[in-house]
Write a structure and sequence with these properties.
This protein has 27 helices and 22 strands. By secondary structure, it is α/β, with parallel strands linked by helices. Helix 1 packs antiparallel against helix 2 and helix 24 crosses helix 25.
Length: 679
Amino acid sequence: MSVAGLKKAINKIFFVLKRRKPRLVIKLVKIYFGKMRFGKYPSFRQVEIQTSFACNLKCVHCSAANFKPAEDSLRFLDYREIARQCRENNVSMVSFTGGEPLFDSRLEDIVRLFDTDATLISITTNGTLLTSQRAKTLKSIGVDCFVISIDGASAETNDPIRGQGTFERIIKAIHIARSYRFFVMMIHVLSHQSIKNGDFDNLIRLAETLKVPLHVSLASPTGNWATDEAVKDLILKQEDIDYLWACQRKYSFVRRDLDGNYAGVGCPAGTERFVISPTGEVLPCTKIQASFGNVKRESMLDLQEKMTRLDVFSSSPPVCLVAEDRRFLREYLPRAFGRKDLPLAYTDYFGLEELLFQSCPACGSKGFYQRYWDFVDYEYRVPFFPTLLQCRNCGLIRHEKIPRYDELKAFYPDDYLVYNESFRSGSNFLFSQLKKKLYEMRAKRVAKYIGPQGNMLDVGCANGAFLLSMKQFGNYSLHGLDIKNTGIDFKKHAIHFKEGPLEEIDYPGDFFDAVILDNLLEHVPDPVAFMNKARSILKPNGYIFGTTPNFNSIDRWIFGKYWGGFHMPRHIFLFNATNIRMFLENMGFVDIKLPPVSNAGDWAVSFQNYFRRKRKSHGKYKRGLYFPVVGLSLAPIAYLSSIFALNGVMDFICRKATHAKNKCIPVDKMKSVILETKT
């Protein structure tokens, strides 16, 4: 546990001590000691329960406005089971919300079902229905906190949003709750307008006067605000976010949802916290109106596990997804606009593609975060601008939105260099000679491993230059495969060529002595399915010979977004020396080697990208004198850095293990499970 995490743990424990709940203190101490000893927290920290959508007010920003009527509401038997699972999973906080929970006459009976002595119990309310007698009853059954909604620091600014006379009743409710020693917090939906017109500053002063914390919930286009206009007018701009952070640094009583996690700062939706609707539907957040299932039919642990399978939640986003994350605002929230049948099934809300590519193919982790945005193709100016994610565990880089195979051809223009036969036959003479020499060196290495004859497949063979180099070293049956046929006459060179993705080509099993993946693995949309197929067509003890960019390289650190290894949008996955070994081991390969190389090609492309960065179009693509000069002059640096796994290009060699089990889950199997769930 970090120093910041330890400090947060101590603050939480002292806060709970003031609530006079010794069993809850013991639970929290056990939780934090468990983190230090075993490195993990309980599955979830907080469960938010919407007892009813009914409410005595009609606020203009109500996020529950478009939920379908609760015709099959949870019964006491269901709430008793929810309470049991909360105890079983060491849930430390249960919040009751609505609608308006105080409008529900069953509230006290539902609260009594929970282990209030070992759980922090909170009620989020508009405050207008809180009476002294109700507060006394709720205190006696173990409720600790009131979170009271407010939209302005005066009746003039609050009442037009919440209703006539509500400001006066909110202030009265705050005084009633404090008189019974509840922990009281005001909550405000912060919009661009409330910062712009000064309401937020006035609320900070009001909170300071009343001596209560001010919790900020960021405005998002949900409920009554689920419109494109709301996105333009109400959602916070970057300067608003910066101002909010400045206020939090200045005023310790200004708080956000991002602050309350067991450790770290980030969005807790779907990981540390989720919501149970009045009908039992489980949502990551009241504003992420996607149901992952129902507590009547599935356990809370299973439902939460579904949420953590999605990168969007498991990556522990550092910002509020529904108000700050550009991708979420652009792609997901609009899917609920105009709908009156919320919540949507999560498969409809997020889409099948999001569910298919959720785990890191190298380490299996589900934690990704956004590393780069709107990447530019500096080489060919192809009009695709991917966002890149990075695995928090092993550092693998991948496209945020994985393209399908039928979309890939658009990434490769007609003048793509390696498709050009003149690239092999003599145009750009110096560069082609350098490339030819490099192919000969690799061909010699392949021949050393498999002998002077055998069946060989070059996946991503382009113009067949590497396969032609193999003819110098033996009598091989040469096979080439590429997703694009450029019209080169492969038969003339005795190369058996096929067009299409490897996964869809019907090669016989245990047939090839070697499969060549020269700068190929980073181009495939699904490395797991791809390597499953490659392994199946290899003979026992057959070899994979590959080359791929190394993300953890000196040249990438120097050139940043201009690094040649990015090669966007064509490179979909980027490995490093650690996770490529991990990936190959998990795919059932052994004797994995990463031999030193003197390939400085990415250095040359990086220089080119930097100097061409301001061009609107790429023009005619040539690699003449400049490339061999840079490549040869930097070859010693490339070789030395590759010894320490720091060169921009890395070669890998591995052998098919005859009895090893593949630890990775094939995507086609994952897809069938998801489709069953959706059906």
